[in-house]
Amino acid sequence: MRVASLGSGSRGNGTLIEEGNTCLLVDLGFSVKETLIRLARLSKTPADIDAILVTHEHADHLNGVAGFAKKYDIPVRMTAGTAWGADCAVTRINCHQSFPIGNIDVQPVPVPHDAREPSQFIFTGQHRERVGLLTDIGHITPHVQQQYSRCDVLLLECNYDSQMLENGPYPQRLKQRVAGIQGHLSNDQAAQLLGSVESARLAHLVLSHISEKNNLPSLATATAQDALGHWQGDLMVSDQQLGTEWIECPRNA
Ligand SMILES: [Zn+2]
Ligand SMILES: [Zn+2]
């Protein structure tokens, strides 16, 4: 199984998960034209995508979904809450129940975020490899902590540095929203999760949804590194413009 980010941040998100001939796209916050360019960078076309999963209805995750899905006839799945008012045909998912799509098993994980029914996802491949995607979450719940243990690859939100958010350009109400219990994850909260989950299997950590105004990749990286101590894996940042290259998920015996 392998995973790649098309781009990550408040101006648009999209993640590809591929196992054998199954390829899933999670969220799409880019225009059709922009998406084609980003897919081409990863040697993919719309015809390769078997389904689009949507985490929640915020524009940076949903804006590109309906147009792309209708143009290329790709099935879309999301929770009933997220689907409310969706502009395309949707198969509803139960955010407590796993389901297969082709070679990939999808486990939704409900998260606290200021959306109608937000769900993040954990993907399991044919060799029991686990890829966790976790962004747009205001705080870590016990359920999240339990679910995201034993991932081989983790794409984890490090949205803001508390100091930078406090001193930054956002109006007070927006600062409160971002830092609130249904907002986004700070570097310190992400570090707290990393310190509390079983990370022996973790081979690749991808710091994601990094704010361009309230954070720096260097700060997020340093905080995560600190939390992981002597961890020897591969630590990278998913960029808003560039996303990531394909990341190969190690096979489990
Ligand atoms: Zn977002
Ligand atoms: Zn959001």
CATH 4th-level superfamily: Ribonuclease Z/Hydroxyacylglutathione hydrolase-like
Q: Could you give the count of β-strands? A: 14
Strand order of the largest sheet: 6-5-4-3-2-1-14
Compute the CA-based radius of gyration. Answer: 17 Å
Could you describe the largest sheet, including whether it forms a barrel?
7 strands, mixed
Structural class: alpha/beta
What pattern of helices and strands is seen along the backbone?
EEEHEHHEHEEEEEHEHHHEHEE
Described by the principal axes of the CA atoms, the overall outline is: globular
Mean pLDDT: 97
- Count of domain modules: 1
Taken as a percent bin, the fraction of beta residues is 25-35%
The small molecules bound here are: zinc ion
The CATH architecture can be given as 4-Layer Sandwich
Low-confidence stretches: none
**Roughly what percent helix?**
25-40%
Quote the CATH topology: Metallo-beta-lactamase, Chain A
End-to-end distance, in Å?
14 Å
* CATH class placement: Alpha Beta
Figure out the total of helices.
9
